[in-house]
């Protein structure tokens, strides 16, 4: 077994759900869910958050990467299945201290990968400093600004919240 695989296994073993959930209080997650809903009234995008505490030993040994896992959640949560193909998933693997953003084709045409990576880096920095809710909030604000600039809601346009706004902690 490679050294980095062993270190990664330990990181995942040390971050079970109950340990990670304490950094994300229900009251703070509820406020963030409300902010997601408010954000979606300003643009045509749909935003989802997933914080996954860790992967199983088998997945770590298989070399599951955070990008691959983010795409899996993107599909499972049907973030791709919005009317304007404008869903954005912000995915955090807590054990790997990694953030990924997956955007559907309706918004990825307008926004560069570098822009998404910049947001991921900002969020990761907040997490490294122990500011977990602030990191999620910063990520939401940045994605909101991008969606407002690229997919603004026009006056009189019907407001449809196509996806749940809750933050998934698993």
Automatic annotation (TrEMBL):
InterPro entries: TPM_dom. Residues 21-144 form the TPM domain. It holds the Pfam family TPM_phosphatase. It comes from the Bacteria. This is TPM domain-containing protein. The lineage of its organism: Bacteria, Pseudomonadati, Pseudomonadota, Betaproteobacteria, Neisseriales.
């Amino acid at each position: 077994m490679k050294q980095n695989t062993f270190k990664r296994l330990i990181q995942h073993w040390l971050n079970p759900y109950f340990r990670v959930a304490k950094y994300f209080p229900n009251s703070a997650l509820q406020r963030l869910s409300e902010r997601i809903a408010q954000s979606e009234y300003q643009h045509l995008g749909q935003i989802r958050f997933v914080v996954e505490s860790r992967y199983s030993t088998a997945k770590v040994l298989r070399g599951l990467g955070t990008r691959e896992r983010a795409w899996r959640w993107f599909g499972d949560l049907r973030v791709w299945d919005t009317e304007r193909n404008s869903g954005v998933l912000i995915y955090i693997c807590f054990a790997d201290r990694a953030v990924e953003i997956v955007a559907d084709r309706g918004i990825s045409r307008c926004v560069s990968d570098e822009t998404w990576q910049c947001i991921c880096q900002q969020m990761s920095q907040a997490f490294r400093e122990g500011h977990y809710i602030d990191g999620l909030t910063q990520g939401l604000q940045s994605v909101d600004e991008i969606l407002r600039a690229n997919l603004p809601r026009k006056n009189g346009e019907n407001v449809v919240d196509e996806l749940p706004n809750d933050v998934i902690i698993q």
